[in-house]
C-alpha cells in the first residue's frame, strides 16, 4: 500500500453502517494485519496495541453491527487520543482502498468479558469493518457534507494542501478543527466546547484531530514535502484550543 493510494482513497471514502455479517476470508484479514503492523504513529513515545474482535465481542449503543472490529489500546499519556486517530485513519483508508466497508465507532466498547486492558494499555476506540451491499465509495467530492475551507482555515494559498484535510471524518461530522499560520508552519486548533458538548465530544474531537493530521500528512507527502510536529502549548485563535504545530519542509 503506497501513500499515493491512501491519498487517493481520501476523495472517495465514506462511512458504512450496514454490513454483510459473513466473515471476511482469512487471507484478507492476514493482509490487513500485515499492513496494520506497519502503520505510522503520530507520537512514537506512546505505547499502543491493535486487536481484532468479532461481532459477539462488541457492545455498541448504536444499531451498527459488523462481522469484524479493529480496536486500539493505548497508554493514557500526552497526545494519545490524537495518536489513536492518526493510527486508525491509516487503516480506515486502507480498507476503503481495498473495497472494504468501515465506520468509526465512538459509542462502542468491548463486550462484558472482553478485556478493556491489554498489557496495561486501555481501550480507546474501534473501527467496524467488513463487506456491505451498500455503495462503498463516493462518486466525487460533491457528495461530502463538509464545511467550506474558509470556515476551517485562514492560511493563505493552502487550498490544495488543506482540501484533502477538509474531507476527514469526525464524530457526528462536527469538524471542530481550524488551521492557521502559513504554508511553512500551520497551527492546528480545536473548537472549544461548552460543558454539555464536552461530555459527549471531548474525547472524540481529539481523536478527530489525529484523523485530520493524518490527512494533512498525506497531503504534504503528496506535494513532495515532509512534516515535523510540535505539541508544546502555543497561541490559538479565539474560541479554539491549541493542538499542534505542523512544520512543512522539503524532503
What features would you describe in this structure?
The protein is an alpha+beta fold and 251 residues long. The chain has two domains: 3-130, NADH Oxidase; 145-250, NADH Oxidase (3-Layer(aba) Sandwich). Helix content is 31%, strand content 26%. It is built from six helices and eleven strands. The strands form three sheets. Strands 1, 3, 4, 6 and 7 form a five-stranded antiparallel sheet that branches. A four-stranded antiparallel sheet has the order 8-9-11-10, with helices on one face. The longest helix is centred in the C-terminal third of the chain and has 28 residues, at 195-222. The chain is globular and about 50 Å long. The two termini are 21 Å apart. This is Putative nitroreductase TM1586 domain-containing protein. Its cofactor is FMN. Residues 6-219 form the Putative nitroreductase TM1586 domain. One of its GO terms (molecular function) is oxidoreductase activity.
Amino acid at each position: 500500500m503506497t501513500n499515493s493510494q491512501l491519498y487517493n482513497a481520501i476523495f472517495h471514502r465514506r462511512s458504512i453502517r450496514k454490513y454483510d455479517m459473513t466473515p471476511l476470508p482469512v487471507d484478507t484479514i492476514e493482509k490487513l494485519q500485515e499492513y496494520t503492523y506497519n502503520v505510522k504513529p503520530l507520537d512514537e513515545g506512546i505505547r499502543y496495541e491493535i486487536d481484532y474482535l468479532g461481532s459477539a465481542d462488541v457492545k455498541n449503543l448504536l444499531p451498527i453491527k459488523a462481522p469484524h472490529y479493529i480496536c486500539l489500546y493505548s497508554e493514557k499519556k500526552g497526545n494519545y487520543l490524537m495518536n489513536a486517530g492518526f493510527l486508525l485513519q491509516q487503516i480506515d483508508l486502507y480498507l476503503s482502498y481495498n473495497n472494504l466497508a468501515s465506520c468509526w465507532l465512538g459509542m462502542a466498547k468491548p463486550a462484558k468479558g472482553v478485556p478493556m486492558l491489554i498489557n496495561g494499555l486501555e481501550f480507546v476506540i474501534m473501527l467496524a469493518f467488513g463487506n456491505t451491499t451498500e455503495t462503498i465509495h463516493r462518486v466525487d467530492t460533491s457528495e461530502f457534507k463538509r464545511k467550506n475551507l474558509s470556515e476551517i482555515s485562514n492560511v493563505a494559498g493552502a487550498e490544495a494542501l488543506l482540501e484533502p484535510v477538509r474531507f476527514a471524518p469526525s464524530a457526528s461530522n462536527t469538524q471542530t478543527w481550524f488551521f492557521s499560520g502559513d504554508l511553512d508552519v500551520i497551527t492546528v486548533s480545536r473548537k472549544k466546547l461548552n460543558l454539555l458538548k464536552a461530555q459527549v465530544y471531548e474525547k472524540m474531537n481529539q481523536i478527530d484531530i489525529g484523523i485530520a493530521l493524518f490527512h494533512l500528512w498525506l497531503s504534504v507527502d503528496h506535494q513532495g514535502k515532509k512534516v515535523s510536529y510540535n505539541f508544546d502549548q502555543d497561541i490559538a485563535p479565539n474560541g479554539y484550543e491549541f493542538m499542534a504545530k505542523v512544520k512543512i519542509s522539503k524532503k
